[in-house]
Amino acid sequence: MSNNRIEIFDSELNNQLWPPCRVACPVHADIQGYVGLIAQGKTKEALEVIRGTVLFAAVCGRICAHPCEDACRRANVDEAVSICSLKRFAADCSYPDLELLKPMATIDKKVAIIGAGPSGLTAAYDLLRIGYKVTAFEKMPEPGGMLRYGVPRYRLPTDVLMQDINPIIRSGLELKTDVEVGKDVDFNSLEEEGFEAILISAGLPVSRPLNIPGSDLEGIIPVIPFLQDVNSGKQVGISKKVIVIGGGDVAMDAARTAIRLGAEQVNMACLECGDEIPAHSWELEQTLEEEATLNSAKGPKRFLGVDGKVTGVEFMEVKSVFDDKGRFCPSFYEDKLCVIEGDTVILAIGQASDLTFLEGMDVELIDGRRLVWDSKNLSTSRIGVFASGEVVTGPGAAIAAIASGHNAAVAIDIYLREGKVAPVRLPVGIEVSELREETIKKIKKIEKEEMPMVSPGERIANFDEFELGFGQDQAAREAQRCLSCTMGAEVIKEKCAACLTCVRVCPFGVPYIEDGEFAGIDVSQCQSCGICPSECPAKAIKLKFASEDEVLEQAKEALAAAARQGQTTPILSVTCQHGYYVSEEIREQIAGEKELIQIKVLCTGRIGIDTLLKFFEMGTAGVIIVTCEEEDCRFNKGNQRILQRAIFVKDLLEQIGLPKECLQLCNISSTGGEDRSFREAVDKIKESLDLS
Amino acid sequence: MIKATQKPIKEIREMLKKHKKVLVAGCNTCVAVCFAGGEKEVEALVSALSLADKKEGISKDYLKKTVQRQCENEFVDPLSEEVRNCDAVLSTACGIGVQTIADRFPEVPVIPALNTAFMGRVIEPGYFFEYCAACGNCVLGQTGGICPVARCAKSLLNGPCGGSQDGKCEISPDTPCAWQLIYDRLKRLGLLKEMERINAPKDWSESSGPREIRRDDLKTNRDGKYNLKE
User: Fold this and answer.
1) Same CATH topology for A103-204+355-424 and A206-352?
2) What three-state secondary structure class fits A256?
3) May I ask the CATH architecture of the domain A103-204+355-424?
4) What's the whole-model pTM score?
5) Partner-chain contact B51 A613, CB within 8 Å
6) How far apart are the first and last CA of chain B?
7) What digits encode the pLDDT tens for the residues A398-435?
8) Which of A498, A609, A655 sits opposite B10 (nearest CB)?
9) Which residues of B touch A537 (CB under 8 A)?
10) Euclidean distance between the first and the last CA atom of chain A, given in angstroms as a whole number
């Protein structure tokens, strides 16, 4: 990394081969990295990886639009990995001792941030890390922007949001809430106060009005103040029949909030129908589960009222929403009309910015409500004033606002160091190519873990979070569905003996003969099972993820810990992680044996004969390999390979004069219940070593 | 390629008895392909030896280094630093590699960790079979591409013996009779007439050593002489 820039801007990243999830993620989070760690039960390390790009881990673990999942290659095998829920799991494990990244320097320059939403706070944290002094001005009483005042609590509880924001404040952010720039502080005075750069990340706090006849009737309310009041804890009364106009996620939020407030009938109406509906499919699905009614392809014609109060809305049937060039241009059947009755109408048809504080401030605006802004360098028309997030990008996912915040921080850093505005862009690696049909066929299908949820009937009674989050076992199992794209085996050509062992043992048929000379492994197809590196007689294959060296390191640490506790005859149990999180029994048994030291591996097939012998060389008295049942192996053949290798190693042990019984194998399913073979394996080792 | 197997640990340890600091030198070509002496096998062998030593309370140092091909001076010479620091070299190469080490480092004893077995091929993973005896006078052209010298237990040159039963050799029910294979193959090729040819007793002089090949056109020294040490 050069120039003290934060790690995620390392230009070297542009040259790396990336899994599709990482490419699709607006901040290019190292998804494969943290999912892989969760798969190994290393949740704390996973959270550290997540926080490397997204400080809003608990937030994004809940409300992210997760484009990563849309790109996931497992979708070609069965279903995409639940990346978003895995992130939530890691964040929810909350490690209070997890250290924040320290500032890289101390720079005596001040930056002002207007709007403490996800974009502004992300930029603030990055700037604090680089070493600047940062002050955020927030007009609301609490930070978080729309996350705090827009997203309903049942999707994002306040304490969860603050769990992500507090570290930013702890990092030294000067947060001024209840301070509105333009009212409490003059925009131009910021410079006088010594702020050398200003970031406008004020979001889109205004609901768009619907200018049709009757719009001044009582009972028609814009969505943002509605959600804001509810989220602020104000007593918000709701009538019995509610109409929500709009088809986006915010409309869903409004409908579901109304239901929770006690509305008996919630009718949603939107222009679009079917796949055109802009809300995410899962949001719509959950809203319908909560018994809101969707009226699609309906365009509002006029509000109906009696005595100045709204009583319903008249709609026209929609002909089409977009023109033939795909532009928003709704057309209607003027004669196909219908009326929906309701005494409250919530308008959720879009949001706009509020930039009145910039009037006469030498910051150029278009129509008084859009900033003149360069998306490449994030600068406004006034030097030293930058903008990021929805105020300039338009409505979108929180993660996009976060990405924009990262870019803004770097743009500001360049400006403050070099006095110029320069284009910035989060580096993006090269996307790995698609899985081939023949590879897909060989990958084991594994059912996706379902998010535990409160039933619709129960959840509408309150604003409690209704998605309950994965438990440890569920999270590990879900993470183990990850195909570890791009993290597979790589041939070190100089060492390759061209023995073709890899070509012959790969359960996925990936290795091939390259240029008629060496083994080649197509990283885009490799499943990282670890079988070929552990078989390669020339040690000419490296595994980028969960390698044998990592297994040895784990064993070494575990044995050293045992030695510190005075264990002289430790027995090492090496358990397949894929089975470990399925079998409660094995965990109990291992926990019950005091000589047993445990390590876990993502399939025992990655342990070669030399590694097996090294376990003994490191000082273990016995080794128990716990594999999955033959047909259960995640990689088809991993458990079979270790069985064969064990026979060879047992022979060597005998030659050395050690009892061959000190290496035992058993499988997960035979460890619990009536079959006590794990227990027997321990006994056999002890007996052979005269320890019983 | 050359096929080899590792010697029993006991035999290797016996030869290493007097040595305290041993370079275990691997070879990443033929003996790697047959899982006897490549880098992985060196790792496993050193672990096994260390464990055996520890069990008997013996302390020895093992250095590990694997070269691409132990039968080439240029690959072996870079071992000199390690060899200097050792009192013996345990070579996991074939006999050629062992002797190359002996030749390049005459001051240090070299000990073979393998028994060099034969020239053969991998029939399937874990199954290696002899295919050529390097007799020096190839007959494959007459025998349908199947070598009776290497693959017939008696190296017969004029058809099978009475021990050929149901296509198998009498030495083992798993071993195909080479002459049965030759017959089947020639039949398929429409060349059964080849079977009628009577071969004269083979000239075995080409198959005993020391054998050498000299090619004047490949010499690199200016005086036109071969640059042999002995």
Assistant:
1) yes
2) helix
3) 3-Layer(bba) Sandwich (3.50)
4) 0.89
5) yes
6) 28
7) 999 999 999 999 999 999 999 999 999 999 999 999 99
8) A655
9) 32-33, 35, 38-41
10) 56
Residue A491 Cα, gap to closest chain B Cα (Å): 14
Interface contacts A/B by beta carbons within 8 Å: 76
Q: Is A628 helix (H, G, I), strand (E, B) or coil?
A: coil
Beta bridge pairs of residue A29: none
Structure tokens at B215: 């090619």
- The domain made up of A206-352 has a fold known as FAD/NAD(P)-binding domain (3.50.50)
- SS3 breakdown of chain B: % helix, strand, coil, rounded to 5? 35, 20, 45
The residue written with tokens 């705090």 in the block is: A148
Give residue limits of the domains in chain A.
Answer: 7-99+433-483, 103-204+355-424, 206-352, 489-543, 548-688
Mean pLDDT in residue range B92-107: 97
Written as one letter, the residue type at A227 is L
Listed in sequence order, the residues at least 6 apart from B29 whose beta carbon sits closer than 8 Å to its beta carbon are A497, B1, B68, B69, B70, B71
Chain A CA closest to residue B36? A537
Rounded distance between C-alpha atoms, residue A117 and residue A111, angstroms:
16
Residues sharing a CB contact under 8 Å with residue A262, sequence separation 6 or more, in sequence order? A238
DSSP codes joined into one string, A379-437: BBSSTTEEE-SHHHH-S--HHHHHHHHHHHHHHHHHHHHHSS---------EEPPPPPH
Per the document, the length of chain A is 692
Position A680 scores a pLDDT of 85
Return the residue of A nearest to B10 by Cα: A655
- Which CATH number describes the domain made up of A489-543? 3.30.70.20
Give the span between the Cα atoms of A43 and A89, in whole angstroms.
8
Check if A504 contacts B (Cβ < 8 Å).
yes
The nearest CA of chain B is from the CA of A537 a distance in Å of 5
Q: Are B89 and B15 in contact (CB under 8 A)?
A: no
Interface mutation vs chain B, best among A492, A499, A500, A660, most B CBs within 10 Å: A499
What gap in Å lies between CA A199 and CA A173, rounded to an integer?
14
Domain A7-99+433-483 - what CATH class?
mainly alpha
ipTM of the complex: 0.87
**C-beta separation of B211 from B136 below 8 A:** yes
Where does A548-688 sit in CATH, by number? 3.40.50
Note whether A497 contacts B28, CB cutoff 8 Å: yes
Q: Do A539 and B35 touch (CB under 8 A)?
A: no
* B178's tokens: 């080479």
Cβ atoms of A362 and A382 closer than 8 Å: yes
Nearest residue to A420 via CA among A364, A378, A387: A378
Q: Which of A111, A170, A166 is nearest to A144 (CA)?
A: A166
- Establish if A499 touches chain B: CB-CB under 8 angstroms: yes
Contacts of A609 in chain B (CB under 8 A): 40, 44
Give the pLDDT of residue A267: 96
- Contact (Cβ atoms closer than 8 angstroms) between residue A112 and residue A381: no
- Kindly list the domain boundaries of chain B, sorted by start residue: 2-118, 133-194
Nearest CA in chain B to A612: B44
Q: Do A497 and B47 touch (CB under 8 A)?
A: no
- Give the C-alpha separation, A260 to A361, whole Å: 43
Query: What's the mean pLDDT in B114-136?
Result: 93
* B12-58 residue pLDDT tens: 999 999 999 999 999 999 999 999 999 999 999 999 999 999 999 99
pLDDT digits (tens, 9 = 90+) for A278-330: 999 999 999 999 999 999 999 999 999 999 999 999 999 999 999 889 888 99
CATH fourth-level superfamily of B2-118: Response regulator (3.40.50.2300)
Contact A84, A38 (CB under 8 A): no
Q: What is the pLDDT of residue A670?
A: 54
Q: Measure A496 CA to nearest chain B CA, in Å.
A: 8
Q: Residue A236 has what pLDDT?
A: 87
